[in-house]
Structures are given as structure tokens and as C-alpha cells.
């Protein structure tokens, strides 16, 4: 069983630039959630994709957008980067509706905005 | 509104001592799930335990145990005979029955001293 993978591991961008982060879900999981974890804080829910459609969104501006592909992998796009976007971005895959389902988290992408 | 509070920011104990991490949650739903996750320095979130709101039975799993009390909205987590490898940030989290997003507390940094 393949776990959740994310790429890249680390990324440095300049304020105003755009970034794309990628996530491959665990085999068989059709749902991907993205979280932002600022330094010293708990992860915060950005949004979730289920079968290629957005299925819930947290309190993040529209410049945070995403995609899910037919193979259930996902991208997180952030436009017009701000310094406060510097964080660890985590994705989690799950298979809702199954007994005792849980979200499996990837290792994260650490984004630094300068 | 959903909220998870971990009042302990940082705890240090000597190896082999027992340690309890506190968690208080708020939700208006009658159906919800509570979680504990561990985040070692590598950054990956590791799932530890999950309980649903209809099951207040407290259990022990190896060195881990939890105390779920709906009357006080608490979901405390205990590590027995702590080990240095238990050093990490521990997050308590809540998911309501109607959606899949997870609300995390701010975490408790646990130091196990040799």
C-alpha cells in the first residue's frame, strides 16, 4: 500500500510569486484535504477535494485554489504569495464512508516566502 | 462553533514517567470524532487514536490510553512509561459528523528527558 507523498519537500519563493504544491493520495483514497501549518501552530484546514470537486473550504482567500485529478492526486496553488503564507503545507487522503476511516497525512511541503 | 483547546503548551518529564496531555473541545454536533496525532521533528503527522462521540469507553493501547468524558468535553491522552522517542508535538483534533475536515488544537510539545 503506497502512502501519501508530497512534492517538493522544500520551496523558497518571493512575495508576489505563484506556487504549486503536489500530493499523491494513498492507493484507493478518493478524497484529499489540504492543511496549512504555521510555525508553532496546529494545522488549519484549507479545502478538500472529493472526486475532482471541491468539497468544503476553510477560511482562506480565493488565491488559494486546488485541483484533483482522475487518479485522485491533487495540487494546491497559491497566487500572489505573501510573507504569511510561509508554512508547512500538509495533504491528507481518506476514503470517507468506510468503517473507521481516517485521514493519512503526507510529510508536507515547507514553503518559505521571502 | 468548533474549537479544540490544549492548555499545555510544553511539558517536560523524565523518561519512564507517565504523562497526561489535556484536551478540551467545543462542538454543537452530537456526532463527532476526536483524534490524537503525533508530530515528530520530521514534520509528518502520525495518527494515534480516534474515538467517536457515541463511545465513551476508555481504552488502553500499549503505552497509550485516553480518557474521554463528554460531560466535561475533555479527551485527555496518557503515555505510560514514557520514552525519549515519545518526544514530539501532540495534537488533539475534532471532526464533526457532517464533514471531513479536522480542527486541530495548537499542540503540546512534549520533551522526554533521558
What's this entry about, in short?
The complex is a heterodimer of chains A (114) and B (114). Chain A has 114 residues and is mainly beta.
Write up what this structure looks like.
The complex is a heterodimer of chains A (114) and B (114). With 114 residues, chain A is an all-beta fold. Helix content of chain A is 0%, strand content 50%. In chain A, the strands form two sheets. In chain A, strands 2, 4, 5, 6, 9, 10 and 11 form a seven-stranded mixed sheet that branches. A four-stranded antiparallel sheet of chain A has the order 1-3-8-7, with no helix packed on it. Chain A is globular and about 40 Å long. The N and C termini of chain A lie far apart (38 Å). The relative contact order of chain A is 0.33. By secondary structure, chain B is mostly beta strands. Chain B has strands spanning 3-5, 10-14, 19-21, 24-26, 32-39, 46-52, 60-61, 64-69, 74-79, 88-96, 103-104, 108-113. In chain B, the strands form three sheets. In chain B, strands 2, 5, 6, 10, 11 and 12 form a six-stranded mixed sheet that branches. A four-stranded antiparallel sheet of chain B has the order 3-9-8-7, with no helix packed on it. Chain B has a two-stranded antiparallel ribbon with strand order 1-4. Chain B is globular. The model of chain B has no long low-confidence stretch (mean pLDDT 91). Classes of the chains: A mainly beta (114), B mainly beta (114). At the A-B interface, strand 4, strand 5, strand 9 and strand 10 of A face strand 6 and strand 11 of B.
Amino acid at each position: 500500500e503506497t502512502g501519501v507523498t508530497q512534492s517538493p519537500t522544500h520551496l523558497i519563493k518571493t512575495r508576489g510569486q505563484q506556487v504549486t504544491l503536489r500530493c499523491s493520495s494513498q492507493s484507493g483514497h478518493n478524497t484529499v484535504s489540504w492543511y496549512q501549518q504555521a510555525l508553532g501552530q496546529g494545522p488549519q484546514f484549507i479545502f478538500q477535494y472529493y472526486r475532482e470537486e471541491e468539497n468544503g473550504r476553510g477560511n482562506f482567500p480565493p488565491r488559494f485554489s486546488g485541483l484533483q485529478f482522475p487518479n485522485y492526486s491533487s495540487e494546491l496553488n497559491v497566487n500572489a504569495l505573501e510573507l504569511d503564507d510561509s508554512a508547512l503545507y500538509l495533504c491528507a487522503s481518506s476514503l470517507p464512508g468506510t468503517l473507521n476511516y481516517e485521514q493519512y497525512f503526507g510529510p508536507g511541503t515547507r514553503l518559505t516566502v521571502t | 462553533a468548533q474549537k479544540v483547546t490544549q492548555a499545555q503548551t510544553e511539558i517536560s518529564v523524565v523518561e519512564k514517567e507517565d504523562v497526561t496531555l489535556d484536551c478540551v473541545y467545543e462542538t454543537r454536533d452530537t456526532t463527532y470524532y476526536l483524534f490524537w496525532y503525533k508530530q515528530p521533528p520530521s514534520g509528518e503527522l502520525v495518527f494515534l487514536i480516534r474515538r467517536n462521540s457515541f463511545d465513551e469507553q476508555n481504552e488502553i493501547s500499549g503505552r497509550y490510553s485516553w480518557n474521554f468524558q463528554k460531560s466535561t468535553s475533555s479527551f485527555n491522552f496518557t503515555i505510560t512509561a514514557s520514552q525519549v522517542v515519545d518526544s514530539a508535538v501532540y495534537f488533539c483534533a475534532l471532526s464533526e459528523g457532517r464533514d471531513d475536515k479536522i480542527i486541530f488544537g495548537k499542540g503540546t510539545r512534549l520533551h522526554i528527558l533521558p
